[in-house]
Amino acid sequence: MTSDREKSVALPESVDAELTSHLIRPDGQEDITFALWSPSEGRSRDTALVHTVVLPRSGERAVHGNASVFPAYYERALELAKKEKSGLVLLHSHLGPGWQDMSPDDIAAEKKFAPATLTMTGLPLLGTTVGTDGMWSGRWWPYAGQRTYRRVWCKSVRVVGKRLRTDFCRDLAPVPPFRELFKRTATVWGPKNHSDLARLRVGIVGLGSVGSIVAETLARMGLTSFVLIDFDELQPHNLDRVLGAGMRDLGKLKVHVAEQAIRFAATAESVEVQAVPHSIAEVEGYKAALDCDVLFSCVDRPRARSILNHLAYAHLIPVVDGGIQVRLPNGIFSGVDWQLQTVAPERPCLACLGTFSASDVSCEADGHLDDPSYLDGLPADHRFKRNENVFPFSANLASLEVLQMVALVTGLAKQPEIGVQRYRYVPGILDVSTARRCDESCEMKKLTGLGDRYFTLTGRDHAAEAARLRQGG
Q1: Which of 37, 101, 173, 182 has the fewest C-beta atoms under 10 angstroms from its C-beta?
Q2: What number is the average pLDDT over the span 295-320?
């Protein structure tokens, strides 16, 4: 965790509610508290995942217009952080709205706690401030050498749950300049919502039929930062479904074809595109995903869905997921369904929604889905052999996925959680459910905000390795 890497903070909505209830006082005074955090180390960004609030007990802090902590409170919080193998956060409130700067007293207090915190926990002290409007600011205090600690401002602080609310540092993430090119789009969402959408770093996992359409749609909407994750190359059977691809692109990596389409279609003044030719199960793809603020799951295999499900909760990165199922009894088309959902804390996870099973994940991880002899032994209509799709199906699903992300970020029409949507082409019905919830025993609840403290899901990906052999890598 070097100080030259981008820094950020993320916290679940439930933790945000507990903190703001304590810190934003009805009597108009400032207050203070500690909390615990776990690290999420991406390819180029370090995120502090705030997961446990350590409220002060009677006599552990003083409120006198502003607020200060007594040594016993700090020592108790520090001991708990050490026990839980977590970092320590010092949080306080200011009497004003917006992204908050620091007073000389704030700086002195956080500098004072930084050395012992790093020594005891092995992680830098994190400082955050909340304004009267609930907006957060954040900074890390890494060791800078010669017994000094340097403040490093976070680019953003994200509150994740039924909404994705991102508070941006105005100096590190300024509002993109307005352009006539996206005037009508910005008018629909509103300038504030459009600027929030535009500054997100969006990851798209799978750049085939659905992913390629999502990518170009977001580029035309004025988004500025993309991470594209896919190990496969464009093959002839992809050409009827991949937007922006032509005969000249055969053999190229799908991420490079998508990058080309984004740069061609972008309406923002400038765009940043990271093309990652790896699987989400490989370290390179996994770490790239951790740099993102929101992820699109445009995959058709269970292992990738399982990993993305983990990222949505353990790493607090919302995932918009969708899939298509064509019905072909006896080889005759009888209908098609596509289903989509957004997963994050306070929402039902992909496992509880039945989008993948643990046995299928293990089967893929063991390489069976890439073993012709294993596949030959399965019935002709087995789900592992079914991948029929056509462009209109993908286009509809991609559009609905983008609209789910817009609702998540903007909360337009006061409905950020659209729910699980299932469209049945025959007879033309869209079913919507907002009642689905995780099972009581769901492990995602226990892992929320803990990062990879207990395990990591990366390893070999047989399909990715085979693709690199085809590509001559």
Answers
A1: 101
A2: 97
